[in-house]
Amino acid sequence: MTCIVQHRRRGFLLLEMVLALAVFGIAATGFAVALHRMAAVAALAQSELRITRILDSALDETISLPVLEEGSTNSTVGETGIELDTTIELLDEMENEDGQLLQEMYRIEIKARWFENSEWQERIVETWRYGRMYQP
Description:
The chain is an alpha+beta fold. It has one domain. The protein has one helix and six strands. The protein has one helix at 14-63; strands at 71-77, 82-91, 94-95, 101-102, 105-116, 119-130. The model has no long low-confidence stretch (mean pLDDT 88).
């Protein structure tokens, strides 16, 4: 009579465990990199939105002045470190589509400068406005 010994396989081999841990490590690393990049993009979008809101607010404030005067002003927005340079300039030679000379037209430019990511950043907005727009 021959005795055949059968061995039942119990558990995993060490090699299978190492391979499973390697695959999990690669997946976890990829997930962590993706989360880091998403956080960086979200921070950039938030920074862009903040600058856009500050520029829009400064432009609205300047446009709504009852009387425009040529010149430049410099201001800092709170403790944000954002510097705003506002320039108001009278345009002499502006014409409409029909070729008529438009008088008392002003160009308003607002330049924002701030230090971010180890370098100076800059954004500029501009518009035109009729000088007597808010006068009776």
